[in-house]
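Help!! Second protein's tokens look totally different from the first
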Amino acid sequence: MRETTEAVVGAFTGPATAPRTLLLGRYDTAGHFRYTGRTTTLPQTASRTVAGLLTPAEAGHPWTGWSFSAGWGSRETLDVALVQPELVVEVGVDVARDTSGRWRHPARWHRARPDLAPADVTLFSNPG
């Protein structure tokens, strides 16, 4: 079962001019920016659109020093570029979550939501 929801972009893979995938997060009730999952590969038009909406991260990004797995059960890490967590995107997600509250499967891109602020996005919740 899938649902459409919003998340905040915290990082991306691929070149800055054409991001390949987006790493998504949501804020929790304590104000911490929590990783929720990654998108599938972006369509070319979406990739170019998103590139113009992302701002490189400033010092103190919440995910500084983190490493992200290339896939479930993989030891390979992703090469990511951190961005200011300010762009909201709409994605389709599987309702299944892991024990950390992250989406178990990649999110499917729907559209950028520059009309929304990160504060408008549903808060992160950990089911465990």
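Here's the second one for comparison:
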Amino acid sequence: MSLYIKAGAMLIALASTFVVQANEYVLKKVAKPTYQSVNLNLDPNLDTFTGSTKINIEVLKPTHVIEVNGVDYSIDEAVLVGETSCDLDSAMNDKGIVSLGCGSEIVPGKYQLNLTFTAPYNRNAVGLYKTIDGGLPYLFTQFEMSDARRAFPLFDEPEYKIPFQLTIRSPKSEKVYSNTPVVSETLNGNWITHEFAPTQVISSYLVALAVGQFEEIPVKGMSVPGRVITTKGKIELAKYAAQKMPVVLAALEDYFGSSYPFEKLDSVAVPEFPFGAMENAGLVTYREDILLLDENNASDVSKRRAISIIGHELAHQWYGNLVTMAWWNDLWLNEAFASWMAAKITYQTHPEFETHLSMSRNRAMPADARLSTKPIRKPIRTEADIMDGLGLAYSKGEAVLSMVENWIGEEAFKQGIRDYIKTYSYKNTQASDLWNTLAKASGKDVPSVLQSFIEQSSYPLIKVTQQGNKITLSQQSYVYAEAKAPEQKWVLPVVLKYGVNGQTFEKSVLLSKRTLVVELEAVADWIYPDANAMGYYRWTLSPENFEKLLANVQQLSDRERRAMISSADALLDGGFLSAGNLLKILEEFTIDPHPAIVSSAISYIDRQKLPFVDEKNQQQWSNFIAQSLLPIVERYGMVVKTDEDPQVSQLRSRVVDLLAFEAKQKNIIEVAANQTGRFLAGDNNVDPYLIGTYLTIAMYHGDAKLLNQMIKVFEQTKDPTKRTQILRALGYAPQGTLQQQVLNYSLTDAIKAPDLGYLYLGQSYQAERQSDFRSWAYEHYTEIANKLPPFALPRLLELYGGGCDLDNLATATQFFGQLTGEVPGYTRAIAKLEESVQTCSQLRLREKASVDSYLRQF
């Protein structure tokens, strides 16, 4: 799918806690499934459906009750057939479990559960759900994490890998797809019964189907048949994905050393989807603005995202589908590996995207440093536990795997992965199975390294001191300046890069102690403590050595220089660098020769606005932005050039955004209005990198006429990218009547639940608009909550109380504190929100004066 703890006694204690707490959410181990057939009667024009299922099971010990999973559906009839045959009573509890009771004792043996049921189509994009697109109804599934139980009775836990066979009866006007090829179709009046081949053994969360009036094109050149499938009127936008999928799949087959493991590979563009994509075996689903794009008018950003997410989902076909975690506590590894693999394959197949400059650790580390953050491998009871920190699991896990691969070598890592897939195909595993396989392939202590990063939160801060040619490395927990963290220790590979008389050298060591003395071959003129920027750690140097490094920064690689920008920001958060000095360093990076590094520096400059800029220094801030960014415009121009580096095009968009919103450059605002008018009128001859930015600028300075025009185009367009760009722009409607109009519009059927995040993103721009948004959001909380998928509710707290303001935090914690009994995830979300806002507030108190001092020169 495409979003701690210490060893020894603490690990045992947490494991014991998990066993006790998990019982009420996990099926009792009295029976296990071996095969399941499902018959569904699906008409997208209705609001409910009916079905029946036959589950072959093996009863493991005498019992009167067999448990299956269930949410929302009602069982009409339940019969057990076997040595002990009986009609079963059913009772569904609030933990997603259905108890099927028999008056007689059920003795161990082989049985068949025969169940008929009725259920509603879900309307929140989970389970078997219905959505409307272009006036037509469609049915899709999203079963991960544990929502297959909303569609039909089953054993809905990842350890139960069995064949599933689906038979779907639907109106003849509808096309029907599932995980496997169709083996027969029978017409009966206005209905067709589609019988699909049994799947290979898979976990229930990978079962999938789609019903509706779809269009499709074949994907040619893959090792198995495949199609790209879209809702009506969008198939022309599927050509890019159809061209690229064989390239990505072939690269993955080569890496894994084995063929794609399923019978077909269909890809579905879904108009309402709660995630980026989902790796269902043989029927992968994608949010349509990821899969569908107009190649002639798409930016490299859109193309790169499509390739990366396709790579992520196809990597899952081996890692996740063929080999599956035993329980959700190892979901982090599924997603981390797929993200890591996607980055590798994208760089291999499309080096022009320069994905080596995209570092997942920079996304992970700010959250991972908080004391409220849990390890990415942790006990799981509920779906709220799964979703808690899931985004961190993707990013941190990917970064740690990259560090380990860099340490043991690419070939050893690849051999370990191949051995792992070969050994555990069609089975369930735990994280230690991979760790041990990598250790065997490399001859290195991989488990110690991975355990120290995966089973405890945060990461190390490496203090580097120099005395002649001897370098002392000391590790401690990285924490925000005002925080006090428990004592932790990691086993980590450290690679030092250093310069001697104009030449560069590297020294690799494994830091397993608190302190280690490393002897270099010569006295270093400068030291960079993270060669290739592969380490999942932060570092500090003495002020003198830090200045030497800055003076020699162009001797670092592009990736290392980009990582250094993030490292400097972390030094501010950790209390090792003042905010004023950080701004000075970032400003120097705005003249870097690589546009991606300039873009990164600008992004980190923009981040300083939240804690440090207010009405008193707003003008100085605007002047600073203008003085720092206008030379970039002079260097690269305002108009795209023929054969221009896409990184320059991306940089220009970032520069234009800040010059308009922060520096209030009138000429840019005028250009944005002009370009927006052309775009909305149907002129596609606009800069694909800039048009999204122009739309937001124009909307922020726009009027009712522009707003209504945007809404009209939004509702009519078949282009998912254009739709998403307008969604983002609508969120910047000016304060007052137009902002309220957009907010009310967000609750209509025109806006799908997964779209709310795009629409609300711009509401945080400027304190007055944010205040009005939050007042509206409290008033309409119930409507917002009812619209969202259940797993997404804890994310709401950031909208209501995020930032630096303690008063807003108090209001949010009081409001959501009353709802913790209704939404399990709110308790954790409140704790994380409190730490985030308090950290930002403390940073403001500590460093505001240094920023004010720095900005006075502008």
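Reply: Different proteins will give different token patterns, so don't panic. Confidence is low (pLDDT under 50) at residues 3-22.
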